[in-house]
Write a structure and sequence with these properties.
With about 70 residues, this protein is mainly alpha-helical. It has helices spanning about 1-10, 10-15, 20-30, 40-60. The radius of gyration is 17 Å and the shape is flat.
């Protein structure tokens, strides 16, 4: 439900990046229920957070992106 609301607010390409956070929320839930988290899971979480941050910051409209011309006839 919240996903559909998010898609009305931001482009789908940007929203798709945040799908990677599902694994982080799962790990947080595991911590709250008493599961143990390994070092490799922590490293993976840091990689996910870094990737989402890099993608979100690069898509903030810096003007350096190229848009496809889909109106051109072949």
């Amino acid at each position: 439900m919240l996903w559909n609301v998010a898609l009305t607010q931001i482009p789908s390409g940007m929203a798709g990046v945040f799908l990677n956070l599902i694994t982080l929320f799962t790990a947080m839930w595991a911590l709250m229920t008493g599961e143990t988290i390994t070092v490799s899971q922590i490293v993976g979480a840091l990689v996910i957070i870094g990737g989402v941050m890099l993608t979100a910051l690069s898509k903030r409209g810096d003007g350096n992106h190229v848009e496809a011309d889909v109106s051109r006839e072949v």
